[in-house]
Design brief:
Number of helices: 0
Radius of gyration: 15 Å
Order of helices and strands: EEEEEEEEEEE
Number of strands: 11
Largest sheet: 7 strands, mixed
Shape: elongated
Distance between the termini: 37 Å
Strand content: over 45%
């Protein structure tokens, strides 16, 4: 399974961005999908996670400003980021917990990360 993320960029404080991430491969099922971020000098932290049924959880720092959603038919997850603050600047990574059908026919349970997309917020 591979994840391809896009949508980062430079935005002024108070602005909005929408991140997208699509999974591809021999996918049987994708369970939780999520977004994490890592700023320079800091550990990677959870931003938001969503189950296959659509239940979402958010970091306190983004509640009310960010919204995570997914399209199960497209194996995709999205992050709508509004009212962006300079402290939201980071590399954002998508994550997917999946079950795939290996070439040998066995089921593989795994976790994959996207390549990261940079979000920069100017004050």
């Amino acid at each position: 399974v591979q994840l391809q993320a896009c949508g980062g960029g430079l935005v002024q404080a108070g602005g909005s961005l929408r991140l997208s991430c699509a999974a591809s491969g021999r996918i049987i099922r994708i369970d939780d999908m999520g977004w994490y971020r890592q700023a320079p000098g800091f550990q990677r932290e959870l931003v938001a996670v969503i189950t296959s049924g659509g239940s979402a959880n958010y970091a306190d720092s983004v509640k009310g400003r960010f919204a995570i959603s997914r399209d199960n038919a497209k194996n995709s997850v999205y992050l709508q980021m509004n009212s962006l603050k300079p402290e939201d600047a980071a590399v954002y990574y998508c994550k997917a917990d999946y079950v795939e059908n290996s070439p040998s026919g066995t089921l593989v349970v795994g976790r994959e990360w996207g390549q990261g997309t940079q979000v920069t917020v100017s004050s």
